[in-house]
Sequence to fold (347 residues):
Amino acid sequence: MKKYVVLILVMLMGFAHSQEYDHYNNNYQSYYYPNQNSTSNQDKKSTPAKDAVEEKNGKQAEEKKEGEKKDESDKKEEKKEEEKPKSPHTFTGNVSLVSDYRFRGISQTMRRPAIQGGFDYSHTSGVYLGTWASNVDGTTHFYNNTSMEWDFYGGYKGKFFPCSAPDFTYNFGAIYYYYPGGKTHAKENVPYNTAEFYIELSYKWLSVKYWQTLTNYFGICSDNPPFNWEKNRADRPNGSSKGSNYIEANATFDLYKKVCWPRFCLKGGKLSLLLHVGHQTVRNYEHLSYTDWRATLTQEFDWFNAFISYVGTNARHAYFDVPDNAYDPDIRHLGAQSVVIGIIRTF
Fold:
């Protein structure tokens, strides 16, 4: 019996020694189960560091809520804007600076720079109108008494099969080339002003366009026959040039959708390639007819587009080798192969 009593006393003493009293926290700390202790009073007490953390967390939570509210309001505004009916009218403008103004491969500025610009209007129905202007040569050897070309045009664009083949489109219209004050050297003072109509068919990246004059071709007629610069005299009159035509084919390829560097991306950033070939036929004056070609790379930037073109023609030197001016015997071939660069801003 004594043995059992002693054994019980020893066990009770061992349990008592296994519990250490924490005088600072009024709590027992167990050697065997240190992770099962109740939270100490010291942990429950507030400290400056703890208050700062709680305050910071509170501010972050409030900022998060405010950000979520702002995002929700922005989404609502975007949704309202999407729900608003879009205007069927579109107005745009453009301005460009080019190293040489080439019209169907022929320089209009004696292979010098030009500044150009225009305005366009389009309607969702397909109707469009526009105007565009550029400086031209202005000397007496190519364009007489004028240094400006001002164009007015309008037409209609549509789709042959809007549902089954939306990429198959058509475009037709008319354009009037106006040269304020511009008249030829002929006694009758024939104007350069010209009117044309055009028809275009397009499928995705390929288009074919036909143009035909409704007037004389930029003043060429019996009263103003072409001037042969090699013979230094005008050709024999051969009637009107009304009905002259130009046909062209164009192919456009998107090379890159977006261009990025390690720390910078171009907005939009599309790089495209245009390949063009065309043939001009001048009615009753076949020696003025020629073929032109062009390859153009265009790069989109944030607020403008830049391009570089390689242009050339097989236009006859006798009619397109023009002296720079009366005081400069330098001959310039207006249809020569050359590189043209420029920048375009659309707004």
